[in-house]
Specification:
With 336 residues, this protein is of the alpha/beta class. Helix 2 runs parallel beside helix 8, helix 4 crosses helix 11 and helix 5 runs parallel beside helix 6. Helices cover 41% and strands 9% of the residues. The longest helix is centred in the N-terminal third of the chain and has 27 residues. The site of thiamine diphosphate has 14 residues, from strand 4.
């Protein structure tokens, strides 16, 4: 794949066996969590919108493996993976889906508004492109304070045509803010193909108009994602500036739970399923002797067990009291 600057190979210096298995485990955890959520949605236990990340796991897991614990993270509404990969409690995430107060956004945000301040994960935002200026603001804050932390801002390919995208890119470049914009190019904005919506052939080209460096990453390959993002973050920490990364990926489910995805062919879906990020990484680790089938089953069983336990916890959690429904609508009512 072409990249506008070369990708440093295995840049993290972290790999080690445990680190590699952790990448696989995180992807499994996200997949099994969302499969459970999908089931619960069909059983009408979850209300509102619910957008699954199934197929895209390598993007969030790889990128966040390259980040530091104190880096800021922000994303759009397809947010389950980023919050889980950042280390949030699975129980709090599942409970959020069921709209209960022990959820990661106190049950008031739902699927699109996961939040985890302890892990510097600032949402979960439903307005396409709306969180990009917030990402610039986070990066501005860290630069202003003289810190070397970076902001990782995930966005969909649909967001690159929004006004807020251009405002955020311009100011981030002008003020040399340490923000990595990571575009999850899964080819579609709802049912519209990226080629029908964007004026450029390659999403990464957008960065040129802002004199911003860019790279293209294989978003189905967790190691490539990790190494690409690590390379960007290293450069940004040395000398603050923004970076644009186009991660080429694919979602296996519809846009949301209610989308039958008739705008794409079965053949296209099948082609991308052959590149499943979990199956592929498993095969790589098996071939390198870093994993055997028994260990894989053990990791998978644990991911399924924790997802089932999270669902049980969510179902057993009490409902939001009616009088709390408006508690956080106005600033006066908020307790922080
Ligand atoms: C400003 C705005 N316009 C329209 C919508 C409705 N909408 C919700 S998701 C979506 C598509 C976004 O696609 P993309 O950014 O590629 O993200 P993906 O769903 O592929 O992760 C649209 C148009 C919205 N939420 N916000």
């Amino acid at each position: 794949m072409p990249a506008t600057i070369p990708v440093e190979k295995d840049a993290t210096k972290l790999p080690g066996l445990e680190r590699e298995l952790h990448l696989l485990y995180q992807m499994l955890l996200i997949r099994r969590f969302e499969e459970r959520a999908s089931q619960a949605y069909q059983q009408q236990k979850i209300g509102g919108f619910c957008h699954l990340y199934i197929g895209q796991e390598a993007v969030a897991v790889g990128a966040l493996a390259a980040a530091r614990e104190d880096d800021y993270v922000i994303t759009a509404y397809r947010d389950h993976a980023h919050v889980i990969a950042r280390g949030a409690s699975l129980n709090a995430c599942m409970t959020e889906l069921l709209g209960k107060p022990t959820g990661c956004s106190r049950g008031l945000g739902g699927s699109m508004h996961f939040f985890d301040r302890a892990n510097h994960m600032y949402g979960g935002h439903a307005i396409v492109g709306g969180h990009l200026p917030l990402a610039s603001g986070l990066a501005f804050a860290s630069k202003y304070r003289g810190e070397d932390r970076c902001t990782l801002c995930f966005l969909g390919d649909g967001a690159i045509n929004q006004g807020a995208f251009h405002e955020a890119f311009n100011l981030s470049a002008l003020w040399k803010l340490p923000v990595a914009f990571i575009c999850e190019n899964n080819l579609f904005g709802m049912g519209t193909h990226v080629a029908r919506a964007a004026s450029v052939k390659e999403v990464a080209t957008r960065a040129k108009g802002y004199d911003m460096p860019s790279m293209i990453a294989d978003g189905m390959d967790v190691r490539h994602m990790r190494d690409t993002v690590y390379t960007a973050l290293q450069a940004m920490r040395k000398k603050p500036h923004p970076f644009f990364i186009e991660a080429r990926t694919y979602r296996y489910r519809g846009h949301s739970m209610s989308d039958p995805a008739t705008y794409r062919t079965k053949e296209e879906l099948e082609k991308y399923k052959q590149e499943d990020p979990i199956a592929d990484f498993k095969a790589i680790l098996l071939s390198e002797g870093k994993l055997d089938e028994t260990k894989f089953q053990e990791l998978d069983r644990e991911a399924k067990r924790l997802s089932a336990e999270a669902m049980r916890f969510a179902e057993e959690s009490s409902e939001l009291p009616l009088e709390d429904l408006h508690k956080y609508t106005f600033v006066d009512g908020a307790d922080r």
